[in-house]
Every structure is written in C-alpha cells, then in structure tokens.
Design brief:
The protein is globular. It folds into 2 domains: about 230 residues, Rossmann fold (3-Layer(aba) Sandwich), CATH 3.40.50.300; about 60 residues, Histone, subunit A, CATH 1.10.20. Helices cover about 55% and strands about 10% of the residues. The protein is built from 14 helices and 6 strands. By secondary structure, the chain is an alpha/beta fold. The longest helix has 24 residues. Strands 3-2-4-1-5-6 form a 6-stranded parallel β-sheet, with helices on both faces.
C-alpha cells in the first residue's frame, strides 16, 4: 500500500443518508465500502443498526459489517487494526477505500493514530462485567475517579463503555488511560478526504421517526426476538445499541410498543445530536447537504486527481 494511500471518509449523524452517498461514490470511483460505525459490527442486528441491505451490499464490496456476536465487544484500537487491514485489502484490489459511519472516535483514531496500549487480558474484562452486574456503574465510575481522575472528568458517569475500558487499561497495565493518551503515536500512511452529510437536527427528526417505522416493517422486532433467545444477557454489548435496548424491554414486557418507539426515537435524536457536536469540531471536514451528490462527486474527483 502506498505511503499516501487516498481514502475517503463519509461521516455524519445517523439517518442522514450516508449509505446512498457511499454507493454513488463506489459506482463512480470503483470504490469499496468499509464500515466505520461501532454498532453496525453486530451480526444479530442488521436491520436495527441500519446496516446496508443485501441489495445495497451487492452493488460493491462491503467490509466490516455484521461480524461480531451480541455478546462480544471490540475496542477502538482493535477495530482500527481491522480497518487498516481492510483498507490495505481494498487498495491492493485497485479500488478506492470508502470509510462510512458515524463513530467519530473510530475516525479520529484511524487518522490521528492510537496510543500503544497493550492488549487486555480477557479475564480482566470478564471480572469487570461481573462487578458491573453486582455493584452497578456508579461504583465503577467512582473507582475510575480515584485511579484516573483526569479521564473520569472527561466522560459522563453513565458512559459504561468508556468507564469499563479505562478501568480495563488501568488494571491491565498499572497506568491510567490518560497516561497512555499522552504517549507519542505514529500517524497512519493515508491521504484522507473527510466528507460530512450535514442536516439540521430539527429537519432530521421526522426522517428518524419514519426510519423506525421502516425498520419495524422490515422485521426489527423479530430480529430482536431472535437475538434475545440467543443472548438474554442485558449487559451484552450488542444490546447497548439504540433500538436494540428499547425493543428488548418491549419483548420483556417492560414497555409497550408505543413507549418503546417513543424512547427509541428520543435516544436516536440524542445520539444524532452528539454526533453532530463531535463532527462539527473536526476542522478538516467538508460538509454537504443530503442529496448534494453532484458536489460530492466533484470534490472527490478533484481530490483523486491532485
């Protein structure tokens, strides 16, 4: 792979129309789509996490979608390692890597590099999962505040994933995550164009509501029911995905369908707002409205010829 391998990122909030734009770029520039969404890795939830449909995936190669079981989790570092391998595979085929998703942390980790944190013994993760079930997240966040006050102050006390990850790193290495983040990193060998599909949150809301109805009509409830039979553990990472958790509560009788849909929409809106906040801080991102595909094509064409 060339030291300045061109890659195109297509980012933005959930429901903004990234898949349509990615397929257009793939057709025009002989591209392959590489998933960069932390929820679309789960094989049990292709509908609920809005993974490209089989018909869409048939239009060009798609990588890193639906490869993880509901009970499995993956760190940003492990995912980025897989993404680097996928990018190299796509480049070797003479195709353009199109990285598509809404997980800003993954994008920043790939483009800026990651701290050289050693792998964590799975036994440590399993012990923290047991403690989470027995003691609750608040107790674990308090512990994180004692061992890594700098990082604990940066995250929300209800952020289970980041709290557990920071404790994993501390217990495995004896060093806080904030210390690792200060270590020098090597920048990856990419020349990146970062495009964002930007929509106003108020404009996006009715689209998100309609998308939930489309997902339900496509079999989202049956998808959640089948996953619940295979993996009833409420703390399994796959169930933390928006839509999955709400449908699980409905199936267990804790929410009516109307309540589940209302909560699903509210959580999706809140997530989209967080995504917009994150991506608006990315200085090198070039924004385009949904449907602004001609302008996107022009920008990518210029990028690839300069």
């Amino acid at each position: 792979m060339a030291a300045d391998q061109p890659i195109v990122f297509l980012a933005g909030p959930t429901g903004a129309g990234k898949t349509e734009a990615a397929l257009t770029l793939a057709r025009e520039f002989r591209g392959s789509v590489v998933n960069f969404d932390s929820r679309q890795v789960y094989r049990d939830f292709p509908i609920i996490t809005a993974q490209p449909s089989p018909e869409e995936q048939a239009q060009c190669p798609h990588l890193l979608y639906g490869f993880l079981g509901c009970e499995e989790k993956i760190t940003a570092g492990a995912f980025v390692d897989m993404a680097r391998s996928a990018i190299a595979e796509v480049a070797e085929q003479g195709r353009l890597p199109l990285l598509v998703g809404g997980t800003g942390l993954y994008m920043r980790s790939l483009l800026s590099g990651l701290a050289p944190i050693p792998p964590v013994d799975p036994a440590i993760s399993e012990e923290l999962d047991r403690r989470l079930a027995a003691e609750g997240l608040t107790a674990l966040h308090i512990e994180l505040t004692r061992c890594d006050p700098e990082y604990a102050a940066k995250i929300h006390p209800n952020d289970k994933q980041r709290t557990l990850r920071a404790l994993e790193v501390f217990l495995a290495t004896g060093k806080p995550l904030s210390w690792w983040h200060e270590r020098p990193v090597q920048r990856p060998p990419y020349r990146a164009l970062v495009l964002g599909v930007q929509v106003d949150l108020q404009e996006l809301a009715p689209r998100l509501e309609q998308r939930i109805e489309v997902m339900l009509a496509a079999g989202a409830l049956d998808e959640a029911r089948a996953a619940l039979e295979k993996c009833p553990d409420p703390h399994a990472p796959g169930w933390s995905s928006i839509g999955c958790a709400e449908l699980r509560e409905h199936l267990l009788g804790d929410l009516t369908m109307d309540q589940a849909k209302e909560l699903w929409l509210r959580n999706t809106r809140a997530y989209a707002k967080r995504q917009l906040t994150w991506f608006n801080k990315e200085q090198d991102m070039r924004w385009f409205p949904p449907g602004g595909l001609k302008a996107v094509l022009d920008v990518v064409r210029e990028f690839l010829t300069t």
